[in-house]
Amino acid sequence: MDEVKQLVTDIKNRNLKPIYFLMGEEPYYIDKISDFIEDNVLSEGERGFNQMILYGRDVSIEDIVSNAKRYPMMAEYQVVIVKEAQDLSRTIEKLVSYVENPQSTTVLVVNYKYKKIDKRKALYKAAKKTGVVYESKKLYENQVADWIRRVLAPKKYTISPKAAQMLVEFLGTDLSKINNELEKLQIILPEGSQITPVVIEENIGISKDYNNFELRKAIGEKNAVKAHQIAHYFAENPKDNPMVVTVSLLFNFFSQLLHFHGLTDKSPRNVASALRINPYFVNEYILAAKYYPMRKVSSVVAVLRTFDVKSKGVDSNAVPQGDLLKELLVKILN
Q1: DSSP state of 235
Q2: pTM of the model as a whole
Q3: Cα 171 to the chain's mean position, in Å?
Q4: Rounded Cα distance, 11 and 37, in Å
Q5: Alpha-carbon distance 34 to 205, whole Å?
Q6: For the segment 136-195, what is each residue's pLDDT rounded down to a tens digit?
Q7: Which of 176, 88, 180, 110 is CA-nearest to residue 138?
Q8: Do the Cβ atoms of 102 and 16 come closer than 8 Å?
Q9: How many CB atoms lie within 10 A of CB 194?
Q10: 286 C-beta neighbours (distance < 10 Å), count
Q11: How many CB atoms lie within 10 A of CB 91?
Q12: Residue 77 and residue 42 in contact, taking contact as beta carbons nearer than 8 Å
């Protein structure tokens, strides 16, 4: 995120590079940087003649180079943006001759999403030398809640830990989807508001009481009644609560609980650091450890491996997902 801020600052200050090669598994920041260049390098009057948007599926490397070698008309720069450049993955190395000697009056932006070019090859080395190479890495699930808080802070919004966790569990690590939902909430809520589980439920449609977060908590507390109530809700709404996601989240929880048992220092600060969790959730692990000693946790992890396979349709004899989940709960809670 700091690297992105520096890039944006440099562009604002007209410290422009002839090449911006934006690549990586997480498309959110690739789009943000590319959109910022598209909207800010040229004035509105200059864009008509000097800004070209190309798409990887529709052009060749030769087309890109031809456009990049043009001179701007009545402007200091021209901007050429290649979107979905990963569609040119088989020929992208051909761009190296231009990147080694780029047109100084052209800002060429290459959006190479969901993958990256080989850092050992000439194109990467040339782009690093003459321009900017930015790699947008996928965040781990345990990093996303903190990312949400950092995105909201400059806009003067806050979010409760539970609400952030609900978004992560419902939307995964797709930053673009999460940001879209956050922007909708910012339209509804006055500046300075806190985004709470109730706000999430009322405006995004994620139940604050019947979700994987609450299921995990109920299992950790050995609250069988609550756990089975949530399982019943999941069975009634299978599309919104796929079994494979639930099993994956529970597997992560019990794997972390196994790690917790192995810690010598079980102080809240050390637990949060070692497990890479928000300190808000540390007490859940401390409580769950009382109900699930290390041997039990090991057996639960083994059970979850079995049900992970079953949730994907292997050896389950077409058993409904809801029934599988109820069976899983019996094995965990007994």
Answers
A1: H
A2: 0.75
A3: 9
A4: 7
A5: 31
A6: 999 888 789 889 999 999 999 999 998 998 888 888 888 999 999 999 999 999 999 999
A7: 176
A8: no
A9: 12
A10: 14
A11: 12
A12: yes
Cα separation of 157 and 151, whole Å? 9
User: Residue for token digits 């999403």?
Assistant: 113
Residue carrying the six token digits 């004899």: 317
pLDDT confidence of residue 317? 63
Task: Give the C-alpha separation, 8 to 32, whole Å.
Answer: 10
Pairing of strands 19-24, 106-113: parallel
Residue environment code for 108-134, b if the CB has 16+ CB neighbours within 10 A, otherwise e: bbbbbbeebbeeeeebbebbeebbbbb
Strand partners, 178: none
191 burial level (CB within 10 Å; 0-12, 13-18, 19+): exposed
Pick from 31, 94, 35: which is nearest to 68 by CA?
Answer: 94
Write the pLDDT tens digit of every residue in 268-309: 999 988 988 888 889 999 999 999 999 999 999 999 998 888
Q: Are 321 and 231 in contact (CB under 8 A)?
A: no
Q: Tokens 């399982």 label which residue?
A: 231
Q: In which residue are the tokens 């009481």 written?
A: 209
Tell me the pairing of strands 158-159 and 51-55.
unpaired
CA 88 to chain centre: 24
Please report, as a single letter, which amino acid is at residue 92: I
CA distances from 306 to 86, 248, 313 (A): 37, 12, 11
Look at 117 and 316; give whichever has higher pLDDT. Answer: 117
* Tokens matching residue 18: 């002839």
Residue 172 has what pLDDT? 82
Q: Do residues 206 and 200 lie in contact, with contact meaning Cβ atoms separated by under 8 Å?
A: yes
DSSP class of residue 14 equals T
**Cross-strand bridge partners of residue 107:** 79
How many whole angstroms separate alpha carbon 180 and alpha carbon 157?
15
Please say whether the beta carbons of 261 and 297 come within 8 A.
Answer: yes
288: Cα within 13 Å, side-chain hemisphere = 27
Rounded to the nearest angstrom, the gap between the alpha carbon of residue 89 and the centroid of all alpha carbons in its chain is 23
